[in-house]
Amino acid sequence: DFLCISLVNGFTQLRYNLGDKTVILQTLQKVHANGNTWHSLNAGRVGNEGYLDLDGINITQKASPGMNALDTHTDFFVGGVSSLNLVNPMAIENEPTGFTGCIREIVINNRELKLTVTDPKGGANIGDCDGTDCGYTVCKNNGTCQVENSGFSCSCPREWTGTRCEQSIHCSQNMCGSHALCIPQPSSFSYTCLCALGWTGKYCDNKIKFYIAKFVGNSY
Asked: Which cysteine pairs are covalently linked by disulfides here (predicted)?
């Protein structure tokens, strides 16, 4: 079994195999190779149906009925592979070459991979594509980063504030205690305080007693 995303003659291609035959999906439009345009690519499979979406244009295709599980226990590679022996011959159309370019963000199963030196298992020929203080996801929540003489500044969407757009405007003047987490409530232009264990009240400023069950010996 495998799932592979690659560039073939300028087109993005998704190939996956659930144990029967290889399903091939290819985008209708080419990827701009001039290096000045960011593209958004969503690809994967749900059950036996694969999907490939480039900049909002989506195509899907189903594998054989009954084939709906992807069995993968190998490493996940980005940009290239350490050995061609790790690649199923059906996973690529031609002999593969490594990817040269920029990748801004990778999310797998709703978990963002940190594109840093220390987060992956290993890497080679990798550098900061941006090369400025704006770097990698400096501004949170869709904020726009601008390079300044002193470093950088973030231009935030109207719902967010802070030096990195990390704080909701609804929590900017919150009265939650130090043992609480502010949860914004945009629909009511307000917030609620989520209390840590042992604290209660609207602002989590009232201490309460609580007891923990203790087990000894052969308890069950």
From this structure: 102-129, 156-165, 176-193, 195-204
